[in-house]
Amino acid sequence: MKAKLVFKGSEVRKLIDDSKKAKERSIPYVGPRKNVPVGLLLVKDDGVYLISNAVTKQTPSESGLIAYATGYGPPSKLVDQDARGEQYEKIRRAVGGDDFAEALAINPSTEKLIVAGMDFIVYLTPDKVSIQIRAAAA
Fold first, then answer.
1. How many other β-carbons are positioned within 10 Å of the β-carbon of residue 84?
2. Is pLDDT of 138 > 70?
3. Model's pTM, two decimal places?
4. Residue 6 — very low, low, confident or very high, per pLDDT cuts 50/70/90?
5. How far is CA 60 from CA 24, 47, 99, 113, 117, in A?
6. CA–CA distance, 20 with 91 (Å, rounded to integer)
7. What is the per-residue DSSP string for 36-102?
8. Can you tell me the distance from the alpha carbon of 25 to that of 63, in angstroms, rounded to the nearest whole number?
9. Cα 57 to Cα 120: distance, rounded to the nearest angstrom
10. H/E stretch holding 15
């Protein structure tokens, strides 16, 4: 498994702003904790997406604070069964079949680079997660 996941900087910016203003943040598989740094959660379940690590009463779907990786949206939203199966398989090949949530800490210097017109890229291998920020592809 080796994946390159591209997210729109403008969508990621909203998630980081949400995390920054939160009074409480969570860690995957641990839950809400005090003193958790500003960050994002990379999630794979129905699609591959980023959400804020902020603890809120609304789900990301309810608040609209969710950023899907380009080309890895939720299979459940597709009406055509063949397209749904193809999307599921594409996601499985890219990031595996198991659902997961992985914390991504965002340091202040990285945060300053995440603006509209930039892509936020997550590289994912079985033993490493790394991020890159670059000008959005035209």
1. 15
2. no
3. 0.93
4. very high
5. 16, 13, 17, 23, 23
6. 30
7. PPSEEEEEEESEEEEEE-B--SS-HHHHT--EEPTT---GGG-SSHHHHHHHHHHHHHHH-SS-EEE
8. 16
9. 26
10. helix 9-21
